[in-house]
Design a protein that fits this description.
Blueprint (H helix, E strand, L loop, with lengths): L1 H25 L5 H19 L10 H22 L6 H40 L1
Helix pairs in contact: 1-2, 2-3, 3-4
């Protein structure tokens, strides 16, 4: 039940975040916080689109993971540069890379484990037939 609650909460945030952000812009709000939120929301949408790479079954999993991580990392650096997180690309990279690797690893690991759980349940259902 907890998993279901968390899943629904994530879906709600995923739907509500762009709507709320757009509402703030349309309502005349301004500021660095809103700009940052909008930039990272757009980056998140691009990360999601790039997840289509995982459907390229003709590529081995390490290639798909590496390509997705690389492209997401480049998007993150571009957003960081746009938002002024560093004075140079090297400074930006050094500041952002450790956190990016940590977050990417945690999300990838969680998604991988969820997929394994789905496959295990599917195999159990197939064995009972």
């Amino acid at each position: 039940m907890i998993r279901k609650i968390v899943s629904y909460a994530i879906w709600g945030m995923g739907i509500g975040s762009p709507i709320f952000t757009a509402s703030l812009w349309l309502g005349g709000s301004t500021g660095a916080g809103l700009r940052d939120t909008t930039a990272w929301l757009a980056a998140s949408a691009l990360y999601g689109i790039l997840a289509l790479i995982y459907e390229a079954d003709e590529w081995k999993l390490p290639v798909r993971v590496g390509l997705h991580a690389l492209l997401c990392g480049l998007i993150s650096l571009a957003v960081g540069r746009f938002l002024g997180y560093g004075n140079s690309l090297w400074e930006l990279f050094l500041g952002m890379a450790p956190l990016f690797v940590l977050i990417y690893g945690l999300i990838w690991g969680a998604m991988y484990m969820a997929d394994r759980r789905k496959v295990r349940k599917l195999n159990e259902k197939l064995q009972t037939k």
